[in-house]
Each structure stands twice: as C-alpha cells, then as structure tokens.
Amino acid sequence: VQLQASGGGLVQAGGSLSLSCTASGGIFSRSAMGWFRQAPGKERECVASINWSGGSTRYADSVKGRFTISRDNAKKTVYLQMNTLKPEDTAVYYCATTYRAMGWVPDEYDYWGQGTLVTVSS
Fold first, then answer.
1. CA 4 from chain center: how many Å?
2. Which of 30, 57, 68, 92 sees the fewest Cβ atoms within 10 Å?
3. pLDDT, tens only, 3-55
4. Residues 6 or more apart from 88 whose CB is under 8 A from it?
5. Residue 112: in which H helix or E strand, if any?
C-alpha cells in the first residue's frame, strides 16, 4: 500500500486548507484511515480518523468543529478539510491506513504517507 498526501502549504491564521491522501494498492474501501500531525519536538498525534464507509469519524478535541475528515472510496482518497486554522496547527501532517475497524494511536496503523507540511502564520 502506498499513500500520497498533498495540499499542505502556508496560510494565515483563520484561513483554510484542504489535504488529500490517495492510496494505491491494498483494499482502500475496507480500510480505516487517519490523519496525524507532528510538530517539532512533539509526539505524533491523531487529529482525525474515519472508518471504511465514512459512517464513523473521530476527532481530537483540539480540532473539533474546525477540521472535517471525509473519504471517497471510488477515488481511493481521504480528505482533511481544515478551517479556522491556528498557529498551533502548524505541523507535518501524515495520512495513514489500518486494517482495523478504526484506529487512533500510531501503533494501530499499518501504512503511512510521506507527510505534508502545514504552516499557519499569526
């Protein structure tokens, strides 16, 4: 399984960005997906996860109401819409996939994308 993340960039506080992650190989439509981020000096944390159908999602408290995870199984793509961005959202964002029903911690995920940098200026 290979995951290709894109969509990162530089945005001012209060702005929006949309990340995409496209999978190749594996059975995307039966895999749960997650978006993680890692800021310098901090541990990698999950910000959002979604089950195989898109019917179940979970968000970190820090992004609830601002971020939305979604997926298009026909396009083998998972999205992360990020609104009202804050400087503390600055991090490298990674997508990951798991054959579990849902995942939250990094050890529960089987494959990772290469990461895309999101920088939010104040």
1. 11
2. 30
3. 999 999 999 999 999 999 999 988 888 899 999 999 999 999 999 999 999 99
4. 39, 62, 120
5. strand 111-112
